[in-house]
Each structure stands twice: as structure tokens, then as C-alpha cells.
Amino acid sequence: MEIKNLIVILSCFASSASIMAQKNPYIEKVYDFAPAPGQFVNKLPEYEEGDTKTDMIRKAEECIKNENKVPISLGAYGGYVIFGFDHPVANVKGEYDFKIWGNAFASATNPNEEKTRFGGNCEPGIVMVSYDANGNGLPDDEWYELAGSEYNKPETIKNYRLTYHKPDENKVKEPMPGSPYINDITYIKWESNQGDNGYVYRNTFHQQSYYPQWTEGESLTFEGTKLADNYVDESGNGSYYVQYAYDWGYADNFPNADERSGFNIEWAVDASGNPVNLPSIHFVKVYTGVNQYCGWLGETSTEISGAEDLHVNIVTSIDNDSQQSFQLLKNPVTDNLAIISDMQQTINIYSLHGNKEMSFMLESGTNNISCSHLSQGIHIMKSQNKTIKFLKQ
Ligand SMILES: [Ca+2]
Ligand SMILES: [Ca+2]
Ligand SMILES: [Ca+2]
User: How many Å apart are CA 264 and CA 109, to the nearest integer?
Assistant: First the structure.
């Protein structure tokens, strides 16, 4: 064999090997971490004197990457984290594509069980997704909100913008009259572009500063969609608050074991609310979606502790990832290929040397194709507008 041909074949295998490398189903990287003020801020994760924003992003990543499952707090309304996986997360039609772990849990007793709402410590975070359209590996592309169950409700406010002001940590505290727990009701002032304003209170349970200590400037501004309050003071006297789950589409809204902690990329909408068809996503942003204060429980803050790609075994396209004409559901370990197709179309399978090995018609939906006569190793599968490589084991 000539040297030149050998190099071509070796480079084919090298690029195929990177596609077939084991994908990490969990968070690989945190790109940004910007919590709003809150009682767990500077604690989840812990701020230490001198820490920069870069240090805090690294600490947040250590908490939520892989299966570490250490919660980080996003603080009050608008605080956010941006993370990504080591591969694009595929959008499989009609299925949850990834899940986000939080710390929502059920109330010991749920007084509103007859209302069939899940009640407990539900602190809904709004989820956005992004596709690395410019291919630079950074989340600097357009973001799309996953339109959850509340998205189109009249009480949901779009383009809500809230500014928090850096507090004087040495100011004289103003305790809430009659409350043994709330010891400063004029702690961190905020106002919004909707005309409402108030304070993030301080309570006796958390003594550290509630304002992110690594930030610069005298204020922090956050913007996004704001959900209606989800809490009910079930006691009527401020002693027992229940935060009720919204139906679907929010982080830290259902317990991790509940499938409704899953997210479907088909829910994505653009800034005008139009549905967008994303074949896969590279980045996820989560921000606290309510602006509410529950007495001694404090402000509602979304916590997250990780995320998981639910289709990690899907082989994604290398040559034309923007075309979602078909998806190979798993490597053909057995002698069957499971292929989901958007339409009726012809598929050809070639050897790495370009010899056609199989040709068949896909129907719209899931197709099971026998590939028992294919040899072990890498093959190329092509439709009119998509090419993938796959490994038969
Ligand atoms: Ca999906
Ligand atoms: Ca980018
Ligand atoms: Ca929480």
C-alpha cells in the first residue's frame, strides 16, 4: 500500500475514534455562575476572601459536574448558571432529552393534596438552551427559552428586569415586628421595570453576607421571564408555607426521581415566542424564575446539583449536525439498527473505502433494520442530507 493511502485511512479512523469516544452524560463545564442575592449565596458554593468570578465559576463547576451532585444556589429572582456537556445533546422527538437535578421535595403533609398539585419545596427555575451556531465552543449564540407550562399564562411576565443594590453590611438592622427569625427587612433593596420594589430580607439562620461578594459595582441586574408566585401560606399565620410545583418545564420544581425533572428541547421558543426546531443543543442556562419571599423560609431560590443527557448513546452527525433527517438510536451491538426518521427516505451504508454495503428505505418513525451481514468496525450511513459514522461491535 502506498504511504499516501495509508495516511488517508488512518486519518479517517482518527476522526471516527473521536466521534465514538465515550460521552460524559453529565455536566462537563460551567461557563458562567451569577447568583442573585440570597441566604445561601456565598455558601453554596462557599466564597472565600479574595475569590474572583473565575474562582466561583470553578467552584460551581466542581459542585455540579459529573455525578458530584452538590447543590449550588442561584439566589433570588434572575440569578443564573450556564453549563454544557462534552457533546451536543440530541433532541429526540417526543422524548425528554435531558434532566436537571435540584433539591425540590414534597411537604411532609400536603394540605392541598385534593388539588392534585405537588406541594413542597418547589423553587422553579426557567431553563434556556443554546446551539453552538458559530462553532467556537462558547455560549455566545442565541438563547431559546424552554416554554414550560406557565409560558403563555397571562400572569407570566416577559422581559422582567430587576436590579438589586449592594447593601451596607454594617447598617442598623430593622427586624420584622413580631418575627423572631427575620432580623432585617431593609437589607438588600431591589426594584423592577414593572414598578414593583422591595427588599431581600436577612434572617437569623444565615449570618454571612447574602450579596455575591466577588461581584464588582454597586448593583446587579437580571432579566428574563418571571413566573407568578407559587407559594401558599397554608397556616394563614405565616408559620407554614408550601411552594407548589408548576405542571412541567422548570428546574428544581419536582424531585429528581420524578420524570418531570426532564426537559424536552422541542419546547424551545425564540425571543418572540415562536417555536424553533433545534436538532441538538450545546449549552443550558437556568435562572430563578419567581420573585417571592416566604416569611421565615426566606426568598425562593432555585438550587441545582447537576444535569444528565438522557440520550447519551445516540450517535450524532459529524458532517451536517443541523439536519435532523434521521437519528441512529444506538450503536449496533446486536445485529439491529434502530433508526428514527423524520420522513420516508433512502439510506445507504458504505464501508470506509466507499463501497456501498446496504441500501434501504426508512419509513417515518422508528425503523428496525437488520445489519447482520455488516462486518465489525466503522461504517458510514448517508441520507440525502446527513452523514454519520457508526461502529458495529
Ligand atoms: Ca425531545
Ligand atoms: Ca458559540
Ligand atoms: Ca431549591
Answer: 31
Q: How far apart are CA 373 and CA 8, in angstroms?
A: 26
Distance 116 CA to ligand 3 centre (A): 21
Task: Find where cell 453552538 sits.
Answer: 132
Distance CA 63, CA 68 (A): 6
Stated length of the chain: 393
Ligand 3 centroid, distance to 331 Cα (angstroms): 37
> What residues have their beta carbon closer than 5 A to ion ligand 1?
91-92, 95, 97, 264-266
Per residue in 78-137, pLDDT (tens digit) is 999 999 999 889 888 888 999 999 999 887 665 655 556 788 899 999 999 999 888 899
Tell me the residue type at 229.
D
Fold observed for domain 3-20+315-392: Immunoglobulin-like (2.60.40)
CA distances from 169 to 44, 184, 199, 205, 217 (A): 20, 11, 14, 16, 15
Burial environment of residue 320 by CB neighbours within 10 A (0 to 12, 13 to 18, 19 or more) = middle
Instruction: Please list the residues that pair with 73 across neighbouring strands.
Output: 303
Cis peptide before 45, with omega less than 30 degrees from 0?
yes
Instruction: Kindly give the distance from the C-alpha atom of residue 121 to the centroid of ligand 3, in angstroms, as a whole number.
Output: 6
- Residue with cell string 422548570: 250
Q: Is 392 in contact with 375 (CB distance < 8 Å)?
A: yes
Q: Could you give the residue range(s) of every CATH 2.60.40.3080 domain in the chain?
A: 3-20+315-392
Predicted TM-score (pTM) of the model is 0.78
N- to C-terminal Cα separation, the chain: 26
